[in-house]
């Protein structure tokens, strides 16, 4: 089934009229002007329970379009564009879309998914009664279940669907026009999305489709040379070096990579007159990477505050943490499991009582290990850390099943890895590092681009 929305891919949305003629670089093109017989559109198929027909008018109140809807209330109204489609550089899907639901405001979004077997890559567009033009670089779609985009991979299908809100069933109708799949950078156009930032300077981030090279920032969406600031960027995020004057600012990113290149959509950020102006110091990552372990605590400074009794108390605390231990793993919630009849029972007893508790225990014993350097504490910490590293990162402690517990668990592994680094052989060090990287990548995939703006209280 199509997933819940995670966060927008690199999607270009506008209200521009697009002509229904084929492009020179089209790999597939349907303008729905070939007549009412759906058999003429041989790459399209529809889910059972979905009715489809050629309707008028299409985009721009002219010509024809495809209209589809579910006969009975359902969570999805779905069509499939049958492949195979091979991933090439700048592969882009484009279409015009509008949608309506029988119950007002019951539609959540129009989604689209590229499938490689069971791996899904997700994007979304607004669900409303206005026509929207969508151009989405396939390289910018979000992998929902661990898939990886690469040149030469073969997608067996692309689906486009209406999604009902809050998992409630609804009768939905979706109109599509000017459906194209082509190999060229999406046009850089003005996005429908507008964000208000109460942090100034604002935090700008995006889903990286290549290696970022340049960010353009201007009060004018045309980016005139004399009124545009340009910045070299290395990552998929950027904060201007000083606060911006109140008003609407436009920004876009130039990126070049193996899968895609070109300018992104033009995005808008509104700076209100009253904002929080706070600029944390940049992290000196290169300098931090050159420091000896442990790096998470100033051992010399903290040990200077401890006498012999204080050190002994820490060793005793570590003994207690080791005695309590950690579970073999956190189970996944399965409906009907008598241990937790509902998901919220699992969330409290397993997510909180197993995953969060294990992470907190690892963090405490890791810090004590770093501060004391006691041989027995080192052995206890190593035992717990290696056991934690054996947990399945796709199991019950996975980020998608609960970000708070996953955060505690990742933080605990970090403390242990840092404290134990100089005491481990290369095999154990690799074991811990592999677990850390796998879990850190889960956060990266979910938080890049950052959901909810600067006020997101799950800013791990």
Write the layout of secondary structure elements.
Blueprint: E1 11-14, E2 26-30, E3 44-46, E4 50-55, E5 65-70, E6 76-86, E7 91-101, E8 107-116, E9 119-125, E10 132-137, E11 142-143, E12 154-164, E13 172-183, E14 190-196, E15 204-205, E16 211-218, E17 228-232, E18 237-238, E19 247-256, E20 261-263, E21 266-271, H1 285-289, H2 299-303, H3 308-324, H4 343-372, H5 375-389, H6 403-420, H7 426-447
Parallel strand pairs: 14-21
Antiparallel strand pairs: 1-10, 2-13, 3-6, 4-5, 5-13, 6-12, 7-10, 7-13, 8-9, 8-12, 9-11, 15-18, 16-17, 16-19, 19-20, 19-21
Helix pairs in contact: 3-4, 3-5, 4-5, 4-6, 5-6, 6-7
What percent strand?
A: 25-35%
Number of helices: 7
How many DSSP E strands? 21
Q: What general form does the structure show?
A: globular
Mean pLDDT: 89
Structural class by helix and strand composition: alpha+beta
Distance between the termini: 29 Å
Unreliable spans: 1-22
Q: In this structure, how is the largest beta sheet organized?
A: 7 strands, antiparallel
Q: State the share of residues found in helices, binned by percent.
A: 10-25%
Helices and strands, in order, run as EEEEEEEEEEEEEEEEEEEEEHHHHHHH
Instruction: Please give the radius of gyration in angstroms.
Output: 26 Å
């Amino acid at each position: 089934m199509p997933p819940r929305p995670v966060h927008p891919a690199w999607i270009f949305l506008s209200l521009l009229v697009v002509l229904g003629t084929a492009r020179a670089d089209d790999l597939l093109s349907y303008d729905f002007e070939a007549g009412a017989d759906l058999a003429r559109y041989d790459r399209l198929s529809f889910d059972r329970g979905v009715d489809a027909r050629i309707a008028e008018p299409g985009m721009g109140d002219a010509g024809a379009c495809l209209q589809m809807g579910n006969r009975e209330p359902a969570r999805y109204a779905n069509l499939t564009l049958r492949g195979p489609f091979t991933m090439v550089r700048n592969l882009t899907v484009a279409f015009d879309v509008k949608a309506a639901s029988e119950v007002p405001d019951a539609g959540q979004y129009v989604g689209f998914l590229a499938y490689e077997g069971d791996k899904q890559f997700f994007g979304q567009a607004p669900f409303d009664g206005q026509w929207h033009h969508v151009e989405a670089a396939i390289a910018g779609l979000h992998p929902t279940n661990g898939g990886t985009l690469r040149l030469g991979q073969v997608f067996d299908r692309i689906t486009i669907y209406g999604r009902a809100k809050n998992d409630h069933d609804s009768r939905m109708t979706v109109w599509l026009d000017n459906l194209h799949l082509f190999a060229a950078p999406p046009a850089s156009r003005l996005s429908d999305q507008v964000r208000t930032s109460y942090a100034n300077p604002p935090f700008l981030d995006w889903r990286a489709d290549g290696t970022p090279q340049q960010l353009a920032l201007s009060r004018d969406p045309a980016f005139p040379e004399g009124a545009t600031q340009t910045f070299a960027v290395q990552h998929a995020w950027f904060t201007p070096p000083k606060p911006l004057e109140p008003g609407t600012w436009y920004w876009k990113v130039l990126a070049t990579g193996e899968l895609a290149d070109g300018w992104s959509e033009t995005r808008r950020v509104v700076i209100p007159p009253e904002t929080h102006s706070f600029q944390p110091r940049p992290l000196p990552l290169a300098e931090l990477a050159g420091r000896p372990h442990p790096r998470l605590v100033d051992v010399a400074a903290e040990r200077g505050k401890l006498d012999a009794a204080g050190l002994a108390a820490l060793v005793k605390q570590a003994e207690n943490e080791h005695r309590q231990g950690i579970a073999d793993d956190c189970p996944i919630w399965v409906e009907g499991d008598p241990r937790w009849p509902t998901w919220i029972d699992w969330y409290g007893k397993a997510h909180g009582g197993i995953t969060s508790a294990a992470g907190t225990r690892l963090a405490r014993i890791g810090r004590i290990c770093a501060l004391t350097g006691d041989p027995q504490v080192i052995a206890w910490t190593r035992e717990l850390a290696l056991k934690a590293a054996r947990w399945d990162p796709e199991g019950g402690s996975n980020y998608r099943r609960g970000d708070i517990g996953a955060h505690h668990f990742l933080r605990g592994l970090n403390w242990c890895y840092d404290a134990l680094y100089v005491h481990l052989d290369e095999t154990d060090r690799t074991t811990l590092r592999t677990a850390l990287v796998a879990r850190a990548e889960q956060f990266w995939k979910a938080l890049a681009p950052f959901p909810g703006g600067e006020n997101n209280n799950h800013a791990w």
